[in-house]
């Protein structure tokens, strides 16, 4: 396997010839079983390293009666207890600033990223220079698989702040040898400026969230610019489901006349493009030699069979500063076995990451995922660009309403239009939903992650408990 060592070391001068399909042909195409043998050996190395350098893991494994030497197979590895995000936050609160799972001296931390803390205590990511370069090399590999090359200009259109995704895309494109344009997002009026800068700089590749790409297309049209005339060849995404959701994907591809690639996993797990597409189709590969991914049942955290649905559990194989070992995602996906037809011999997630266990809501006994609603609504002719999902409770009965912006739908036809969407939703969800047409531009657009679900039942619960 090319440049496969522990601790990781990469030849920074290496870059494939532009016409070469694979960054590392051996690592990417070897028989999956042979790779699994190498991964098992690496897992044992990573666990031994964490045992010696990270008190967090030693305590956790001691309590579970686990020692790195007891892991003799990937099945044995499933007995290692999962790590939950709340454990990481609690450990950082007790061992500031980076937690007792920091496995290098604090003096070796050269980059700090983290979460925003909007849903609780922020989590700090302390990154050594070795890890920074490993992440750059890994992302360059996946971006190469997407067909991004040295002569591309890559627009990084997500906030250049604590958010890992922006910096991973930046350093990956830089390592690949492309021209990097870190325009960012989040400043009022910036999207209109983005349109004109894209034309001026000859941007050929876009990185951001699916929501922001759709917003950019709307703003371009308002500026009198056809998004397809901007010259993009490819768009790749992370941060939220969408790039593997057929309706969202087709709207983006149609608007820009470009190829669409999905990627991304968790903020705590970088290289986050270890779930990354390698062809212009829905779904992502699990680049197992970067981050070992197990799709597990959400109760016992054992791997499910290929073809089944579960929640990903991640183990970083190239991180030395804050290794993540069996980190539970609480995301939802379905995986398929490696196939030679895809070129790279990695497991495949045909729908990408399409939701979270804690984003799922239940209405009248049916489990509903927001991405399923997005797919139906965004595919509707006359869809105006945004929608909101509102769950409420009248008496003892839950009700589901979807407020949908419309555009170029005649007023006399609105009720029939809404009824058609409602019927499709009933078939897909197994539960009725009231579709409420609202005027175009009713809802704010986002330059980052879309938040479309409003659960009024939570408000009713809080009011009830307060009284």
UniProtKB/TrEMBL annotation:
Q: Which residues form the AMP-dependent synthetase/ligase domain?
A: 115-280
What Pfam families does the record tag this protein with? AMP-binding, AMP-binding_C_2
A GO molecular function term, named singly, is:
ligase activity
- Is the keyword Ligase in the record? yes
Q: Locate the AMP-dependent ligase C-terminal domain: which residues? A: 365-457
Keywords from UniProt, A to Z, are: Ligase
Q: Which SUPFAM superfamilies match?
A: Acetyl-CoA synthetase-like (SSF56801)
Per the UniProt record, which residue ranges are transmembrane? Answer: none
Name-wise, this protein is: Phenylacetate--CoA ligase
Organism, scientific name: Amycolatopsis acidiphila
């Amino acid at each position: 396997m090319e440049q496969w060592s522990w601790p990781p070391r990469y030849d920074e001068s290496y870059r494939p010839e532009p016409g070469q399909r694979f960054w590392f042909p051996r690592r990417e195409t070897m028989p999956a079983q042979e790779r699994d043998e190498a991964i098992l050996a690496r897992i044992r190395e990573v666990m031994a390293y964490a045992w010696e350098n990270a008190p967090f893991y030693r305590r956790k494994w001691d309590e579970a009666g686990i020692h790195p030497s007891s892991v003799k197979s990937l099945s044995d590895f499933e007995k290692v207890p999962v790590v939950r995000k709340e454990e990481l936050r609690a450990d950082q609160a007790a061992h500031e600033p980076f937690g007792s799972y920091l496995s290098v001296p604090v003096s070796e931390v050269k980059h700090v990223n983290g979460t925003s803390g909007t849903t609780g205590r922020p989590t700090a990511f302390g990154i050594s220079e070795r890890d920074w370069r490993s992440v750059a090399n890994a992302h360059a590999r996946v971006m190469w698989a997407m067909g991004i090359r040295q002569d591309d200009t890559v627009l990084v259109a997500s906030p250049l702040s604590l958010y890992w995704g922006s910096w991973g895309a930046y350093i990956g494109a830089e390592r690949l040898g492309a021209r990097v344009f870190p325009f960012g997002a989040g400043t009022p009026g910036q999207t209109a400026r983005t349109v004109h800068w894209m034309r001026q700089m000859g941007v050929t590749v876009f990185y951001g969230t699916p929501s922001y790409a759709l917003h950019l297309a709307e703003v371009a049209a308002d500026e009198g610019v056809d998004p397809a005339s901007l010259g993009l060849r490819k768009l790749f995404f992370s941060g939220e489901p969408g790039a593997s959701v057929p309706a969202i994907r087709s709207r983006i591809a149609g608007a820009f006349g470009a190829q669409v690639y999905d990627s991304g996993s968790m903020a705590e797990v970088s290289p986050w493009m270890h779930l990354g597409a390698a062809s212009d189709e829905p779904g992502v590969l699990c680049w197992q030699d970067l981050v070992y991914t197990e799709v597990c049942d959400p109760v016992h955290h054992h791997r499910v069979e290929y073809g089944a649905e579960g929640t990903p559990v991640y183990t970083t194989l190239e991180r030395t500063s804050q290794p993540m070992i069996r980190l539970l995602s609480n995301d939802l996906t379905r995986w398929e076995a490696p196939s030679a037809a895809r070129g790279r011999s990695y497991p495949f997630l045909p729908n990408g990451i399409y939701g979270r266990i804690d984003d799922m809501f239940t209405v009248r006994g049916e489990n509903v995922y927001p991405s399923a609603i997005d797919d139906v609504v965004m595919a509707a002719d006359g869809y105006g660009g945004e929608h909101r999902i509102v769950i409420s409770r009248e008496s003892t009965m839950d009700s589901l309403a979807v407020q949908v912006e419309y555009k170029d739908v005649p007023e006399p036809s609105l009720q029939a239009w809404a009824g058609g969407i409602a019927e499709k939703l009933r078939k897909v969800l197994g539960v009725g939903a009231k579709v409420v047409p609202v005027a175009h531009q009713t809802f704010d657009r986002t330059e980052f992650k879309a938040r479309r679900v409003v659960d009024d039942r939570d408000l009713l619960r809080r009011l009830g408990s307060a009284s």
